């Protein structure tokens, strides 16, 4: 009996670990596999490149997570990244500060518009953000005449933001760490965070408890727009140009990272750090496919989709057992 009880307790503990840390275990397992298959995988340069290249997506995915936690969705993030990058490049001749503020302000305004249409006009988030995505992308292509805009040498601070280092750590990586800690604190230690979870879990019940769902929705979509603009600024600094065709499909990757991290698409349950693990898993997967070398880009898309589906199914299974 004692042995049976011990095995049962051990099984429950293992199930609890898998439920809470399943995605992290997948990430570590993939890293172990890659370290044996590819000699260059564990080099500091390669690992730092994975983090730096995916830092912009991590910023976008953070905003997506907050929106999904509230019960919404934001399909405009990729287009807002491109628009933010274009605006910052166009303003770069006036200095880094003006350019950065202008780039972020432009996408924050569109995020505010998303929030107003969802909360005040009571339109479906899918429809609203799909419209904004189309409008923002079209605007970026129109004002640039479908061409990249090089960043002026007067905006050296902007380039440093995308390419610079502090103590051998890339600036974008430091930004991601600070933003995720700030978002975690906001979600779990502030009234706004509690309201976001409440609205995502049950909007009507939250209203009866004194929460204003309209204000919450306005806040999360505005925040998503701001973070998309920040990602666009960093991307433009990294590339040295604003590109109107940048960030195609980033909304899909941001949603995938959020869902893999265990955030419910229905809202009300999830957290930000698992989303960051999801972003790193996506980045590592791209990196491994590139290291493999023999797989064409088209088959990489097929394999990536299949792998993401397997991860989501695994996450759901362990969540149900937990």
Summarize the structure.
By secondary structure, the protein is an all-alpha fold. The protein contains 14 helices and four strands.
Written overview of the protein:
- The chain is mainly alpha-helical.
- The protein has a domain at 55-271.
- The chain is 76% helix and 2% strand.
- The protein has a two-stranded antiparallel sheet. Strands 2-3 form a two-stranded antiparallel ribbon.
- Strand 2 (165-166) and strand 3 form a beta hairpin.
- Helix 4 packs parallel to helix 6 (125-144).
- The longest helix is centred in the first third of the chain and has 36 residues, at 2-37.
- The protein is globular and about 60 Å long.
- Mean pLDDT is 89; it is low at 14-18.
- The end-to-end span amounts to 23 Å
| Low-confidence runs of at least 5 consecutive residues | 14-18
Helix content: over 70%
Rg, nearest Å: 21 Å
* Total count of helical runs of at least 4 residues: 14
Percent of sequence in beta strands: under 5%
The computed structural class is mainly alpha
Shape: globular
N-to-C SSE series?
Answer: HHHHHHEHEEHHHHEHHH
Describe the SSE topology.
Elements: H1 2-37, H2 44-53, H3 55-69, H4 77-90, H5 96-119, H6 125-144, E1 149-150, H7 156-163, E2 165-166, E3 169-170, H8 171-189, H9 191-201, H10 203-208, H11 213-239, E4 241-242, H12 250-260, H13 273-292, H14 297-321
Helix pairs in contact: 1-13, 1-14, 3-8, 3-11, 3-12, 3-13, 4-5, 4-6, 4-11, 5-6, 5-11, 7-11, 8-9, 9-11, 12-13
């Amino acid at each position: 009996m004692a042995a049976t009880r011990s095995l049962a307790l051990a099984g429950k503990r293992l199930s609890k670990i898998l439920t809470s840390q399943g995605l992290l275990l997948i990430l570590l397992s993939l890293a172990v596999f890659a370290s044996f298959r590819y000699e260059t995988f564990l080099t500091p340069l390669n690992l730092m490149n994975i983090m730096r290249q995916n830092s912009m997506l991590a910023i976008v995915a953070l905003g997506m997570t907050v929106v999904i936690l509230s019960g919404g969705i934001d399909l405009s993030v990729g287009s807002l990244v491109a628009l933010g990058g274009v605006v910052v490049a166009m303003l770069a001749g006036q200095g880094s500060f003006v350019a950065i503020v202008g780039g972020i302000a432009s996408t924050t305004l569109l995020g505010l518009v998303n929030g107003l249409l969802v909360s005040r006009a009571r339109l479906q988030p899918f429809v609203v953000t799909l419209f904004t995505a189309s409008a923002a992308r079209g605007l970026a292509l129109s004002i640039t005449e479908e061409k990249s805009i090089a960043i002026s040498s007067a905006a050296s601070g902007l380039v440093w933001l995308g390419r610079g280092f502090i103590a051998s750590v890339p600036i974008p990586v430091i930004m991601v760490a600070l933003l995720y800690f700030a978002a975690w604190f906001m979600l779990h230690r502030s009234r706004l965070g509690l309201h976001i979870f409440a609205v995502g879990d049950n909007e009507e019940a939250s209203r009866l408890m004194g929460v204003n769902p309209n204000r919450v929705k306005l806040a999360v979509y505005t925040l998503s727009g701001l973070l998309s603009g920040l990602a666009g600024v960093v991307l433009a600094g990294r590339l040295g140009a604003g590109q109107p065709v940048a960030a195609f499909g980033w909304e899909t990757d941001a949603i995938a990272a959020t869902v893999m991290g265990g955030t419910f698409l229905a809202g009300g349950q999830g957290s930000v750090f698992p989303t960051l693990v999801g972003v790193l898993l996506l980045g590592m997967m791209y990196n491994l496919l590139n290291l493999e070398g023999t797989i064409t880009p088209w088959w990489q898309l097929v394999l990536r989709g299949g792998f993401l589906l397997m991860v989501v199914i695994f996450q759901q299974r362990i969540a149900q057992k937990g």
